[in-house]
TrEMBL record:
This is Uncharacterized protein. It comes from the Bacteria. Pfam families: MR_MLE_C (PF13378), MR_MLE_N (PF02746). Keywords: Magnesium, Metal-binding.
Length: 360
């Protein structure tokens, strides 16, 4: 298939209120969407940031990658991934350039599966078409809001909920968790995320308090590239330590796995550089027999997770993507069933794009 053209959209939604975690507060959710056209099929790619200027820069990068693909055969996906990585040499082969290329790479895989007449997960040799999903949120907002959010997920049939930790006085985190446990009961799994806000000493001090509340999943307690610190933590506690969402490509994930710095990894398909590298990251985790839970982007990540050796659990933050898709798999009662539609099974909602199109 020859690539004939493309459209790149920057969609910006200001949140109704800031959402703080241990490190920063989110005020915007920014989407960069791509429609890559061959005349017969349209491939969709997507990424996100939390800052309009970053999203504008990403849009420019995506447009540049796409210009180089017009007139070329869309099936040479690995070739184009390697060429794009070569062009990043002057500005860094991770970060924004890699996240921007993920948008293009994802659209190319969507096109490939559409041409094959298969959903992407089937083309990749899936083991299932239904994946478990946990509800995610729990920002450092008033306690009543956080508890109501968790209860709403539970009413919808979810069995797992993740919230943020990171108040300056960690005893406030424990107080909030105690109230949450009382509200949701013992049959509901609570997962916690520190967004890289602690150090080893502090983590080891707090972990027993978390375990007392029946919590056995701790995400990003330390800086993502503190590989040795993460390894020390894994070896020092029975708490399951999850890390990896802020790492880029197999090179960084490999170092985390090699040093046994995580019991679970949660790679982000966008930061990996798209479907191509996400497949390799999941295969690498399989070689180490480490479980994989995907960081956000569940509508795309699910296709690879469905075919990965140790992958399964998806993350759902409903508000981030609400209204963006005319067609997409939807999480219900703590599960996501992939659609039996060629490609990703995703169509963009152009009314949404037009309504929130970014204007500087």
């Amino acid at each position: 298939m020859i690539i004939r053209g493309y459209k790149v959209h920057h969609v910006s939604k200001k949140l109704s209120k800031p959402l703080p975690n241990a490190v920063y507060a989110l005020e915007y959710i920014e989407h960069v969407f791509l429609e890559l056209d061959t005349g017969e099929f349209t491939g969709v790619g997507m990424a996100y940031t939390f800052n309009p200027d970053q999203a504008e820069a990403m849009k420019i990068l995506v447009e540049g990658y796409c210009r180089n693909l017009v007139g070329k055969d869309s099936t040479y996906i690995r070739k184009y991934w390697q060429q794009a990585q070569g062009t990043m040499g002057g500005c860094g082969q991770t970060g924004l350039p890699m996240s921007a290329y993920a948008v293009v790479d994802t659209a190319l895989w969507d096109l490939l599966a559409q041409e094959a007449g298969k959903p992407l997960y089937q083309l990749l040799g899936a083991k299932t078409d239904i994946l478990p999903v946990y509800g995610s949120g729990g920002w450092l907002v008033p306690l009543e809001e956080m508890i109501e959010e968790a209860l709403e997920f539970k009413r919808e049939g979810y069995t797992k909920y993740k919230l943020k930790l990171g108040f300056p006085d960690w005893e406030k985190d424990i107080s909030r968790l105690t109230a949450l446990r009382e509200a949701v009961g013992d049959d509901f799994e609570i997962m916690v995320d520190v967004n890289q806000g602690w150090n080893v000493k502090l983590a080891l001090e707090i972990i027993p308090e978390l375990q007392r509340l029946g919590i056995n999943y701790l995400e990003e307690p330390l800086h993502c590239q503190d590989y040795k610190g993460n390894a020390e933590l894994v070896q020092s506690t029975s708490m399951r330590i999850c890390s990896g969402e802020c790492l880029f490509t197999t090179r960084e994930i490999f170092e985390l796995l090699r040093l046994r710095g995580a019991d679970i990894i949660n790679p982000d398909l966008m930061r990996c550089g798209g479907v191509t590298e996400f497949i390799e990251v999941c295969s690498l985790a399989g070689a180490f027999r480490v479980p994989v839970t995907a960081h956000v982007l569940m509508e795309v990540s699910a296709h690879v997770m469905a075919a990965s050796p140790t992958g399964g659990l998806l993350e759902n933050i409903p508000d981030w993507w609400a209204g963006a898709f005319e067609l997409a798999p939807v999480a219900k009662a703590g599960e996501l069933k992939l659609l039996d539609i060629p490609g990703l099974g995703i169509k963009l909602n152009h009314d949404y794009i037009n309504a929130y199109n970014y204007q500087r």
